[in-house]
Amino acid sequence: MAKSLPQRKSEMMPGTLELLILKTLERHRDPLHGYGIARHIRRVSDDVLQVEEGSLYPALQRLAVKRWVVAEWGLSDNNRRACLYRLTPAGRKQLATEVADLERLFEAILRVVRPA
Questions:
Q1: Which residues contact 18 (CB under 8 A, 6 or more apart)?
Q2: Contact 18, 59 (CB under 8 A)
């Protein structure tokens, strides 16, 4: 019986978490609480990207300071009081810029690592 190799912990490039948060909020019509954002990122990435609270909430605060997200108190899915986040128009614009920059970076990396 073959042993399965332990899963390596994937580390994100600096700034990637903010991009993932913005993209998650763009995909959802309703505001999300922090746990919902982390759960979405984990689910969509097939458990490769796992966002810890110690990284998530400071990132959300940075995005709020930049006015790319707005935080407001409301009720979570299970009717508990929670801080809910939504994307602002400025955040939507920033997301488009960051996605374009990331795509250009990945294309450049692939040109280097793939054989000609």
A1: 59, 62, 63, 68, 98
A2: yes
End-to-end Cα separation, the chain, in angstroms: 39
Kindly list the averaged pLDDT for each block of 10 residues, start to end, along the chain of length 116.
53 81 95 94 94 93 97 87 95 96 94 86
Q: Please compute Rg for the chain using Cα positions.
A: 16
CA separation for the pair 17, 82 (Å, rounded): 21
pTM of the model: 0.84
Computed from CA positions of residues 103, 112, 6, 18, in that sequence, does the dihedral angle turn out positive or negative? negative
For residues 88 and 67, the answer to whether their CB atoms sit within 8 Å is: yes
Alpha-carbon gap, residue 56 to 37, rounded angstroms: 9
**If DSSP codes are grouped into helix, strand and coil, which group holds residue 73?**
strand
